[in-house]
């Protein structure tokens, strides 16, 4: 089968959850099928929309479209034209979209024109929230990064796009009206996609229900399927070599991930413990997080990036517990599954897809979402109950008889069934 995968970034250039998952399925599927990937890069020294092609494996070819300047736009005719040329030459049997942010919603139209069945995995809320996470920017407001329950054009303009306003009070109403209209146009566009997708896949029931109830995706065209993982490298070969209880964080250093919440909570703990932080640095955000950690620099360590294939023994072997403190409604965090594969207990928030994969005192601990003090209490419990935490970690993934997370091979078998059903 000729499968076209569309994703807004691909490792090693981009290593967030949707990109890592996309790489995992493409490498597995390429063992038996012909895989073409359409993705982006941001090369400041090359022409905009230039296509660069790279052959990673015998059956895995990647087309990178260059997009130097990346803003909140959502539909781009130049990208659509480049994409149309690729699918005319490649003639895929099926297309599997992972994300269109930073690319173009017009990609769906091009697939529609050429009668190519489309599968769409939902990794966040981008189709029904211009910012993707229902997390407000709240520019100029005292309370920033507030959660948003439902999309509203004027509310979006005021709370998420007012940093584009002129800054003059006399222009406020004009700017609000302009951006409210822009958001409406954008939402009309993403809503129009629904009828052109053969099947949506949601990796958490939380996300699936949000799209059914708030975005009106028909139940008949959305299904739940958790992520699959290359479990061959998620096996611990060694144990942590020190006696201090060690918490770990894995992920990007951006506000929505709640790393600042974790640092503040951990800094209030007087008991002997260590916090190790891994992940790609993010400019001034990482600098601010390091400054936040200065008074506890002996207890908080920034460990840099990691290679996924070495995740078990370079990361999980060095910690007693992983913490996932995201302040938005995370979908189905890969890090939770990866920790469970290595039998490492998880502390995460009682919200969104996070609480779907961690049950309190069954295979980890839940704290009240965005509550700094409650997170501190849960970490203190972990420090004081080392044996109990080890028992929770051994429970692993609760949705399989052997406590193992979904294997990438089995997962791709299910994907092929969905692909074939759409033909």
Could you characterize the architecture of this molecule?
This protein is an alpha/beta fold and 423 residues long. It folds into 2 domains: 2-132 and 188-228 and 407-422, Glycogen Phosphorylase B (Rossmann fold); 231-395, Glycogen Phosphorylase B (Rossmann fold, 3-Layer(aba) Sandwich), CATH 3.40.50.2000. Helices cover 35% and strands 16% of the residues. It is built from 14 helices and 14 strands. Helix 1 crosses helix 14 (408-422) and helix 4 (153-160) crosses helix 5 (172-192). The radius of gyration is 22 Å and the shape is globular.
Helix percent reads 25-40%
Strand order of the largest sheet: 3-4-2-1-5-6-7-8
Mean pLDDT level: 94
Question: How many structural units, i.e. domains?
Answer: 2
Radius of gyration computed on alpha carbons: 22 Å
CATH architecture of the largest domain: 3-Layer(aba) Sandwich
Provide the CATH superfamily of the largest domain.
Answer: Glycogen Phosphorylase B
Secondary structure elements and pairings:
Layout: E1 2-6, H1 17-29, E2 34-41, E3 51-57, E4 60-66, H2 77-90, E5 94-97, H3 106-113, E6 118-121, H4 153-160, H5 172-192, E7 199-202, H6 205-214, E8 222-224, E9 246-250, H7 259-267, E10 274-278, H8 284-292, E11 300-304, H9 311-314, E12 321-324, H10 334-341, E13 346-349, H11 354-357, E14 364-367, H12 372-384, H13 386-395, H14 408-422
Parallel strand pairs: 1-2, 1-5, 2-4, 5-6, 6-7, 7-8, 9-10, 9-12, 10-11, 12-13, 13-14
Antiparallel strand pairs: 3-4
What is the gist of this entry?
This protein is of the alpha/beta class and 423 residues long. Helix content is 35%, strand content 16%. The protein folds into 2 domains: 2-132 and 188-228 and 407-422, Rossmann fold (3-Layer(aba) Sandwich), CATH 3.40.50.2000; 231-395, Rossmann fold (3-Layer(aba) Sandwich), CATH 3.40.50.
């Amino acid at each position: 089968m000729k499968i076209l995968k569309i994703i807004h970034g691909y490792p090693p250039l981009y290593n967030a959850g949707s990109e890592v998952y996309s790489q995992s399925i493409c490498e597995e599927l390429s063992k038996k099928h012909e895989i073409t990937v359409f993705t982006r890069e941001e090369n400041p020294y090359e022409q905009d929309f230039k296509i660069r092609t790279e052959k990673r494996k015998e059956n895995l070819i990647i087309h990178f479209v260059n997009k130097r300047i990346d803003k909140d736009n959502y539909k781009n005719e130049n990208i659509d034209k480049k994409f149309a040329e690729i699918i005319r030459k490649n003639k895929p049997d099926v297309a599997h979209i992972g994300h269109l942010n930073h690319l173009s919603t017009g990609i769906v139209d091009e697939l529609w024109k050429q009668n190519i069945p489309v599968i769409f995995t939902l990794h966040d809320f981008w189709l029904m929230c211009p910012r993707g996470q229902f997390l407000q920017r709240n520019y100029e407001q005292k309370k920033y990064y507030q959660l948003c329950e439902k999309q509203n054009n004027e509310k979006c303009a005021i709370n998420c796009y007012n940093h584009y306003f002129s800054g003059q009070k006399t222009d406020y109403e004009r700017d609000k009206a302009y951006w409210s209209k822009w958001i409406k146009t954008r939402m009309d566009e993403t809503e129009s996609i629904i009828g052109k997708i053969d099947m949506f896949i949601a990796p958490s029931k939380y996300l699936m229900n949000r799209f059914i109830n708030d975005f009106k995706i028909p139940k008949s065209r959305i299904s739940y399927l958790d992520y699959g993982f290359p479990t061959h490298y998620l096996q611990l070969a060694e144990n942590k070599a020190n006696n201090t209880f060690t918490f770990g964080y894995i992920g990007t250093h951006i506000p929505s991930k709640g790393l600042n919440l974790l640092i503040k909570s951990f800094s209030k703990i007087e008991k002997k413990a260590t916090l190790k932080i891994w992940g790609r640095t993010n400019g001034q955000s990482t600098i601010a997080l390091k400054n936040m950690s200065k008074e506890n620099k002996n207890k908080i360590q920034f460990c840099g990036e990691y290679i996924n294939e070495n995740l078990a023994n370079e990361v999980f072997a060095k910690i007693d517990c992983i913490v996932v403190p995201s302040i938005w409604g995370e979908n189905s965090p890969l890090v939770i599954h990866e920790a469970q594969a290595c039998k490492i207990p998880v502390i995460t928030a009682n919200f969104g897809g996070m609480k779907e994969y961690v049950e309190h005192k069954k295979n980890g601990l839940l704290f009240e979402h965005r509550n700094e003090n409650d997170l501190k209490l849960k970490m203190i419990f972990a420090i004081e109950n080392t044996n109990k935490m080890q028992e929770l970690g051994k429970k692993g993934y609760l949705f399989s008889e052997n406590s193992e997370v979904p294997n990438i091979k089995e997962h791709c078998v299910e994907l092929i069934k969905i692909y074939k059903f759409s033909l």
